[in-house]
Amino acid sequence: MKERLTPRRSRLPNCTGTATIFILIDEHTREVIPEDMKGTFAALYCDRRFGIGADGVLFLQPSDKADIRMRLFQPDESEAAMCGNGIRCLAKYAYDAGYVKESCSVETGAGIVPVTMGYADDEFSATITMPTPAFERSAIPATGTGEYKQEIRGFAVYAVNTGVPHAVVFVKEIGAVDIATAGPAIRNHPTFVEGANVNFVEQGDGDTIRIRTFERGVEDETTSCGTGATASAAIAHHLGKVGDEVRIETKGGPFIIRFGESPWKARPTRSLRALYRSDPTLGDHKIKRDTLRPGPVLPEHRPPNAIPLFEPDDGL
Q: Measured between alpha carbons, how far is 226 from 108 in angstroms, rounded to an integer?
C-alpha cells in the first residue's frame, strides 16, 4: 500500500487563470523541490481537502532554449507538456519578478511558446501563440490513420493536439452532459494512446461556443482549460461551424481565439490575478524529502502565512 504523505508548513505563491488554480514554484535561480519528488509534491499540495487545493503545480525554471521554462505537474503526479492557462500565470509571475519583458519565449514540453503581455489600467493580459493544432491521429496520438472521428458511448468524438491531446464532442446542451461518467469513458478510450482531455461543446449564437472540460491528470472537470478552448475552437473552425474569430465561454470566463494568422494565436480576454504571494522570509528555503512525510493531515486550505494580494473576481 502506498504510504500517505501530508504537507508541512511552507509559503507558496498561488495564482489563477480563468478560475484554474495553480501553485507556482520559482526555481529560476535554484531547485526548490527535488526532481524525483515533484510529482509527489503536486499530488499532495493540490489536494483540496488536505493540501492547498489546486489544479496543478507550475515550476518556473531557467532555459537554454528560451527566456524561461515552464513545467507542470498534475494532481495524479504526471507531467503535462503544455497548459494554456498555466503559461499565462507563469508569464505574469515572471514579468512581475523582472525575469522577462513584455515579449518573451517560454520553453514547454510542446515546444517554444511566444508570449506577449502587459498591463493596461492595472489589468494584466497575455497573448499566447499556441502550438499549431494537429489533426492527424499519429500526432494526437491515437491509433489508426487520418483525422480522428470515433463514436464512443453514443457521442461523435473528434480529436486534435494543441500541445496536449484533446477530444472534442459537440452536444445540444452542455449542462445536460453527465461529465463525471462520459468524461472518463472518452478520456480512457483505447484509441487514445496517452489518454486525452475531453471537451463538450455547445454551439451558441454566431461564432460563440460554450465548453466544459474534463482534464486528464486532474481526472475531473475544471473551470477552464486554455488548450481545451483552443482545441474546441480549432475543431469547430476545421468543420466550418465558426469563423476566424471565436468566442469560447467557460465556467471560469471567456477566451477569444483568432485563426487566419501565422502562427495561430489565442488571446484570453480576462485578466490574471494573484491570489496569494509567498512570504518574503522564505529566502533560500528548499523543500527536502523529509518535508513530505507521513503524519496527521493538516486542516489548512490556504498556504500557511500567505498574504492575500487581491480578492478574486466574480467566478474565481
A: 14
Residue 293, C-beta contacts closer than 8 angstroms, at least 6 positions apart = 5, 6, 8
pLDDT band at 177 (very low <50, low <70, confident <90, very high): very high
The rounded distance, in Å, linking the Cα atoms of 211 and 312 is 22
pTM for the model stands at 0.70
Q: In the chain, pLDDT over 70 holds for what percent of residues?
A: 76
Query: Helix, strand, or coil here: 150?
Result: strand
Whether the CB-CB separation of 125 and 118 falls below 8 Å is answered with: yes
Q: Could you tell me the CATH number of the domain that includes residue 210?
A: 3.10.310.10
| Domain with 112 in it | 14-120+272-308
DSSP string, 221-252: EES--HHHHHHHHHHHHHTTSS-SEEEEEETT
How far apart, in whole angstroms, are the C-alpha atoms of residue 134 and residue 132?
Answer: 6
Whether 142 and 113 share a structural domain: no
Geometric angle at alpha carbon 293, from 292 and 295, rounded to 5°: 130
CA-angle at 70, arms to 66 and 73, nearest 5°: 160
Which residues are known catalytic residues?
Answer: 83, 225
Q: What is the pLDDT of residues 281-310, one digit of tens each?
A: 333 444 444 444 433 333 343 333 333 332
Q: For 133-151, what is each residue's pLDDT tens digit?
A: 999 999 999 999 999 999 9
Task: For residue 223, give Cα distances in angstroms to 96, 123, 144, 252, 254.
Answer: 25, 21, 32, 5, 11
Residues 141 and 251 in one domain: yes
Residue 7 is assigned to a structural domain of this protein:
no
